Amino acid sequence: MSTEIRTTDEALAGEAGTEAGVLRPAAGVTARRALLAHPAVLLVGIVLASLNMRVALASVAPLVGEISDAFGLSSTASSLVTSVPVLFLGAGALVAPWLGRRFGAERMLFAALLLLGVGILARVLPSVYALYGGGILVGTAIALLNVLMPGLIKRDFPDRAAAMTSVYTGALIAGATVAAAASVPLEEALGGGWEASLGFWSLLAGIAALAWLPQVLVAKGRTGHEVRAVPAGGARPVSVWRSPLAWQVTLFMGGQSLWSYVLIAWMPTIFTDHGMSRSTAGVIFAFNTLTQIVGAFAVPLLAGRMRSQRPLIVLVTTLVAAGYAGLLVAPAEGAWLWAALLGVGQGGALGLALTLIVLRSGDAVTASRLSGMAQTVGYLLAAAGPLAAGALHQATGSWTLPISLVLGVCAASLAVGLLAARNRTV
């Protein structure tokens, strides 16, 4: 036991010198301290990884019409192009905490970025099976990134967790903004149709993987002799799956994910169905994504300064509900206003959901487990959104019923969010 660091490096690790419940050998702690002495290296890795978290999803929405025409897909089948990755955001999140404990967060983040690049390239192959199969790889890769990042931030930045959540959430949405805005121009510039436009984003995943290599090299010093950490007092850790508070955080994550992925899948189509040109709809969709940065940066910072985040829950859900109501009554006439309201609300809700995972967790171990639970259940719920919206639109020939149901989701999210925002921990 002489090679293990138990107490002196607790601040470094976030809680009891652990990574997802594992004590580090002395060599690993030394390597981690050396890396954190140059936080820019770690910060660049986090930002570049975060930029990839929504690029592969946001880049598809402006091109769904062309993809559908290329493969002769119905509205319901078209919705699977965006629903399949979201479904595997949930399925991948189920195993991500175990993979992080087994192989280390750094290695799994690196592997996720490589898998993401492969999935992006698979989607552009001339086969509908490759289109959906690539979506499975993309969703699984993003799930690993989504789940492991909060625990890593809680571990390495325990005193700045809310601020770092703001940084990585903002980078996540910035990547989505660029992808949404550039999809159609890239298609024209590369001259290769929608395939070249989608495939381009594999380069960003490759760059991020290279930037994450220093983390992987440091992680080599933490393998081979780890042992399970025992919580203070010898008590066994409480299962997050049995915690009402964990379920409240999880359901808020699911609600905000559902309303966001419905927009990712169908916002441009809603506008074009009401007479707007495809290029204008794409620009407004990109504007919606851009305005999310405002909420994504500001809300986590505010949340970290509050004992209770209830006012922020009310704010973000009200903004989203107002934007959806606008899409219901005057979608084309007030498109820019609705896009702005939705954008600030979406970004704020995502940032708040991720921050609640960190704030409601007492340590890095719980943060990792709660992140896995919230994103497993949350994204499985969210996956139903685009598919159900597409099916209802096809059945009714209108967007009235799908949007009305999303407004119901907003009301439910407000209720569980107010419970999740109370000042307590799992």
TrEMBL record:
Pfam families: MFS_1 (PF07690). The keyword Ribosomal protein does not apply. Gene3D superfamilies: MFS general substrate transporter like domains (1.20.1250.20). InterPro entries: MFS (IPR011701), MFS_Cyanate_Porter (IPR052524), MFS_dom (IPR020846), MFS_trans_sf (IPR036259). One of its GO terms (cellular component) is plasma membrane. One of its GO terms (molecular function) is transmembrane transporter activity. Residues 38-426 form the Major facilitator superfamily (MFS) profile domain. It comes from the Bacteria. Keywords: Membrane, Transmembrane, Transmembrane helix. The chain crosses the membrane at residues 40-64, 76-96, 108-125, 131-153, 165-186, 198-218, 245-267, 279-303, 312-330, 336-359, 371-393, 399-421. The keyword Nucleotidyltransferase does not apply. It is a multi-pass membrane protein. It is found in: Cell membrane. Its main location: membrane. This is MFS transporter. It comes from Streptomyces gardneri.
